[in-house]
Amino acid sequence: MFGKKKQVSTIDKDQLELIENAQKRIRQKKRLYIHFVIFLIGAVFLILANTVLGIGKEFTIAGVDWFVYAILAWLFLFAYHFFNVFITNKFMGKDWEKQQLDKLVNQQQLRIEKLKQNFLKEETKMAQSQAYNEAKAVESSSEKKNSNELTIIVAAGEKNAIGKDNDLIWHLSDDLKRFKKLTNGHHIIMGRKTFESFPKPLPNRIHIVITRQSDYNVPDGVIVVNSLEDALDAARKDNQPFIIGGGEIYKQSINRVDKLEITRVHSTFEDADTFFPKIDTSIWREVSRTTHDADEKHAHAFSFITYLKK
Ligand SMILES: NC(=O)c1ccc[n+]([C@@H]2O[C@H](COP(=O)([O-])OP(=O)(O)OC[C@H]3O[C@@H](n4cnc5c(N)ncnc54)[C@H](OP(=O)(O)O)[C@@H]3O)[C@@H](O)[C@H]2O)c1
Questions:
Q1: For a substitution probing ligand 1, which of 169, 213, 227, 249 has the most ligand atoms within 8 Å of its CB?
Q2: Does 88 map to a domain?
Q3: Which one has a higher pLDDT value, 262 or 20?
Q4: What is the domain count for the chain?
Q5: By C-alpha distance, which of 228, 286, 277 is closest to 254?
Q6: I need a surface site. Which of 1, 177, 255, 289 has the fewest CB within 10 A?
Q7: How close is the Cα of 183 to the center of ligand 1, in Å?
Q8: Rounded to the nearest 5°, which phi and psi values hold at 235?
Q9: What distance in angstroms lies between residue 160's CA and the mean position of ligand 1's atoms?
């Protein structure tokens, strides 16, 4: 407790290094000074040894006394020593090395910083394009969800007859049941004449009636439009709107639909006045067929045939 307090150095590492460096420089300069003094004394001694004491008096090189060469050689050594202390040490000493090192480190740091920024830019670009692609994927998937499968549903005889005097030519209860089942809950698009062939609107379906008349009256809930385009637009939120006839509307829409639900009635009806367009098998491929024979409830045999666009 009362012992000698240990001295804690307040000099930091850099300061210590500076002090050591200064001491080293002093020692270097001191040695150079001593070298200079010795050189002067040595040179005088060599001159005296030759001229006064006659040492090597006879020895000359190219007519010049040997001591001149000895002094010149020594002078050269001294010059080298001087150069080391004041030139080499200044330019290539520890300080110089440290400066070069700092320079290199700074350059490397700048390059690293640049690389980092480029990397960040690239990363941002990649993230943006990823987000863009994801948004596109979501968009296209929601577009797909919204896209609807526009379908024609029709019952047609072997020669494509579908009606006479604004009415059907047959009564096939299983066909009516199928019509009801398929169209239930959907939009049904029809021409004005077909609409008028119904005693009243069909339950649980949204009727869209196409007419050129501007003041056509319909019961509540029935939508009236003046073109096929407007009819399709009115049904755009339905994933499967149906075009249910008649002849004029089928003709105008067959090239626009994705699917045909045909009830092919296996008979010919010569007195029909309305017809379904011919199905072009280079455009349509049959994907399913169910055949139904004639029976007590069905005067004609018929087949349910589904076509999809090729
Ligand atoms: N077998 C089956 O599956 C089936 C199904 C449905 C109907 N059918 C039969 O088909 C017959 C009816 O067919 P249809 O060809 O005579 O008549 P429709 O196609 O039902 O209706 C024709 C009417 O639709 C309107 N229209 C047509 N194209 C239009 C357009 N581009 N822009 C605006 N309005 C347009 C016009 O109404 P305005 O005159 O008021 O302008 C035109 O008179 C009936 O016999 C019916 O029983 C059969």
A1: 249
A2: yes
A3: 262
A4: 2
A5: 277
A6: 1
A7: 18
A8: -105, 15
A9: 15
Percentage above 70 pLDDT, the chain: 91
The protein residue whose alpha carbon is closest to atom 37 in ligand 1 is: 211
- 178 with 275, same domain: the answer is yes
Please identify, among 73, 92, 111, the residue that sits at the C-terminal boundary of a domain: 92
Q: Do 157 and 67 fall into the same domain?
A: no
**Same domain assignment for residues 84 and 162:** no
The answer on 262 and 179 residing in a single domain is yes
Quote the tokens at residue 255. Answer: 């090239």
d(CA 20, CA 185): 96
pTM tops 0.70: no
User: Is residue 131 situated within a structural domain?
Assistant: no
CA 309, CA 260: separation in Å to the nearest integer?
Answer: 9
The DSSP secondary structure of 218-263, one letter per residue, reads --TT-EEESSHHHHHHHTTT-SS-EEEE-HHHHHHHTTT-SEEEEE
Residues at CB less than 6 angstroms from ligand 1: 154-155, 162-163, 166-168, 190-194, 197, 210-213, 226-228, 244-249, 252, 274
Tens of pLDDT, residue by residue over 25-61, are: 889 899 999 999 999 999 999 999 999 988 888 888 8
How far away, in angstroms, is 290 Cα from ligand 1 center? 28
pLDDT tens per residue across span 68-85:
999 999 999 999 999 988
CA of 167 to the centre of ligand 1 (A): 11
Residue 7 domain flag: no
pLDDT of residue 97: 76
Structural domain boundaries enclosing 200: 151-309
Q: Which atom of ligand 1 is nearest to the CA of 226?
A: 33
Q: In terms of domains, do 88 and 155 share one? A: no
